[in-house]
């Protein structure tokens, strides 16, 4: 990916002034190369890593740019910008099928003067924002630079703000700026002069009962075959001696990926983030050793959280929440691994069935919107608290109206109830949490996500709930296809590292360890010094700790801007939800219970330059 900007403006002087003003602002990080091209009233600019796969085409028929790897057909053929231009030539009267892989593309046609078509990958992970009128079009991977165009007037979108605070992600395309939209997943953006921009449907996540009647073993084989083929198509190197990077955690998803890479003989250099004693690092190291992979462990730069928060707020406008600011520290480690880095983002909700746990009521065993929204809302600000926080004279009934719009969108989805939850989760939480990370990574090496594959999505979308739920099929794939990896300790973000295939010796050792741990806990309580803190070996608990040093620094960074929100929120309620930085916040769940406060931190920092 890249940070790109497109402007279609018939006022040539105004367009030129705008481009001059934003050209040097375009790179989010140091060390990126910039480039640009133009056709008629349209100009394109981008900043990307030197190794980023970018294809351009310019002739008398216009210009086209492809950022990333668009994969066509089962032969893993990478297409280029000329093929994108041909495929999109008749949009919107004829809609070409999307490609696999992670990419975005823009086509500007000369034979249809001023026409612009922009699109992205199957799941809409490559961010595309746009602002359009009949006289002007701005499109970019970030809305940040729109405010430098003389014709653009930044104004808060209260409905967009409510959606973000409820779900920690964009709701139905509404951003923090009025009339600035995020392109919906599976859609193309079409614009021509003297007309409003259109979002044209191109792809929808598949939901069917195609594999419901098969035995569980056959379903597992189908999932594995689809996954194995996708890894081969997406990750196979372009040159015989080329290696790729691998983001290797201690959990199931990257283990499933590492096993398939090993089967295909794809040479990898694995990277794990964390400290040597972390459960994550311990488990990932065992996997890398088993597969004979080169393996590097790098610490998370918690001291840089304020810098990373600035990057996330500036370039993402809180669209993906603020919890994962630490991922801005990953790109600097990627260049040493290779030009491409393979990652398992979104494998869990697509293949592992995690969306079912979000949507299914444990008491009834049934999926519903109410259960799913309740799960999503845990990562935002609770509905009743948000009503108290927002000034009614400004927001009216927007909280309840937004929830109702979400309910209507859920009800309109095809398939069985659990499939509605699967798709809704991917289009919301999946897209804006884990799915927000690849764009940040691209400034170090190009992310390769085998889950962005027609066949994988069609196969998972045709499985019954019982097959996917609680990682049943994913775990069985690991046990059957990669038994050596299944015998290794597994990180679950807890002290329980039990392998999927525990040996007899492991069970004996676990029993002894549990008894020793109980004694140590009792002794520890008796001898603990006041104020003493144990070493936290759960990496994500440490990274997300609102009371930890990194987040304390971000809280201090945001604190001066509370008054900027005085016209929007009730100050006393804001103080309840986000105490001052010197106050230790009581959290039952360090990860979940802190996300709402982090949204407010992001909004405070954003308000400094954008309100």
Describe the overall structure.
With 611 residues, this protein is α+β, with helices and mostly antiparallel strands. The chain folds into two domains: 178 residues, Aminohydrolase, N-terminal nucleophile (Ntn) domain (Glutamine Phosphoribosylpyrophosphate, subunit 1, domain 1, 4-Layer Sandwich); 396 residues, HUPs (Rossmann fold), CATH 3.40.50. The chain contains 25 helices and 21 strands. The protein has a six-stranded antiparallel β-sheet, with no helix packed on it. A hairpin with a 6-residue loop joins strand 13 and strand 14. The longest helix has 24 residues. The chain is globular, with a radius of gyration of 24 Å. The mean pLDDT is 94.
């Amino acid at each position: 990916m890249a940070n790109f900007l497109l402007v279609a403006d018939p006022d040539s002087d105004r367009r030129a002034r705008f481009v001059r003003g934003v050209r040097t602002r375009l790179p989010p990080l140091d060390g990126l190369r910039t480039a640009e091209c133009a056709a008629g009233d349209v100009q394109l600019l981008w900043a990307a890593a030197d190794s980023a796969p970018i294809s351009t085409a310019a002739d008398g028929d216009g210009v086209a740019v492809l950022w990333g790897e668009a994969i066509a057909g089962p032969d893993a053929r990478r297409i280029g910008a000329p093929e994108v231009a041909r495929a999109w030539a008749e949009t919107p009267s004829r809609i070409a099928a999307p490609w696999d892989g992670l990419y975005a593309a823009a086509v500007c046609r000369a034979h249809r003067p001023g026409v612009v078509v922009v699109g992205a990958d199957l799941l809409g992970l490559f961010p595309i924002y746009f602002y359009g009128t009949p006289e002007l079009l701005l499109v970019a991977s970030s809305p940040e630079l729109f405010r430098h165009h003389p014709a653009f007037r930044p104004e808060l979108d209260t409905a967009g703000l409510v959606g973000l605070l409820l779900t920690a992600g964009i709701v139905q395309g509404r951003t923090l700026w009025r009339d600035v939209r995020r392109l919906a997943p599976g859609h193309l953006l079409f614009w021509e002069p003297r007309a409003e921009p259109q979002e044209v449907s191109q792809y929808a996540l598949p939901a069917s009962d195609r594999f419901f009647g098969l035995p569980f073993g056959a379903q597992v084989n189908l999932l594995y075959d689809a996954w194995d083929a996708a890894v081969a198509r997406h990750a196979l190197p372009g040159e015989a001696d080329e290696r790729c990077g691998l983001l290797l955690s201690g959990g199931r998803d990257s283990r499933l990926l590492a096993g398939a890479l090993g089967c295909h003989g794809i040479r990898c250099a694995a990277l794990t983030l964390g400290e040597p004693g972390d459960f994550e690092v311990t488990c990932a190291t065992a996997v890398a050793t088993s597969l004979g992979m080169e393996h590097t462990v790098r610490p998370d730069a918690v001291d840089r959280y304020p810098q990373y928060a600035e990057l996330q707020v500036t370039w993402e406008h809180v669209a993906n929440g603020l919890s994962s600011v630490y991922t801005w520290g990953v790109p600097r480690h990627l260049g040493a691994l290779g030009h491409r880095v393979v990652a398992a983002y979104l494998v869990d909700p697509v293949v592992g069935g995690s969306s079912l746990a979000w949507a299914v009521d444990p008491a009834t065993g049934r999926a519903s919107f109410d259960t799913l929204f309740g799960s999503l809302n845990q990562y935002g600000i609770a509905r009743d608290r948000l009503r108290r926080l927002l000034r009614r004279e400004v927001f009216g009934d927007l909280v309840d109206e937004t929830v109702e719009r979400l309910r209507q969108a859920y009800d309109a989805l095809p398939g069985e109830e659990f499939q509605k939850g699967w798709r809704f989760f991917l289009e919301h939480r999946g897209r804006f949490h884990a799915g927000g990370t690849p764009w940040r990574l691209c400034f170090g090496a190009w992310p390769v996500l085998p889950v962005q594959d027609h066949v994988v999505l069609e196969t998972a979308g045709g499985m019954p709930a019982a097959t996917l739920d609680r990682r049943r099929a994913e775990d069985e794939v690991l046990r059957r296809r990669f038994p050596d990896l299944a015998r290794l300790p597994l990180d679950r973000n807890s002290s329980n590292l039990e392998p999927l295939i525990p040996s007899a010796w492991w069970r004996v050792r676990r029993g002894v360890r549990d008894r020793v741990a109980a004694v140590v806990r009792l002794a520890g309580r008796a001898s603990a010094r006041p104020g003493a803190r144990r070493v936290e070996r759960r990496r994500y608990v440490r990274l997300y700790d609102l009371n930890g040093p990194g987040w304390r620094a971000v809280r201090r960074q945001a604190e001066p801007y509370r008054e900027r929100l005085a016209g929007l929120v009730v100050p006393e309620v804001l103080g309840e939800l986000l105490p001052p930085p010197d106050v230790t916040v009581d959290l039952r769940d360090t990860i979940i219970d802190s996300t709402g406060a982090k949204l407010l931190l992001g909004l405070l920092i954003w308000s400094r330059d954008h309100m």
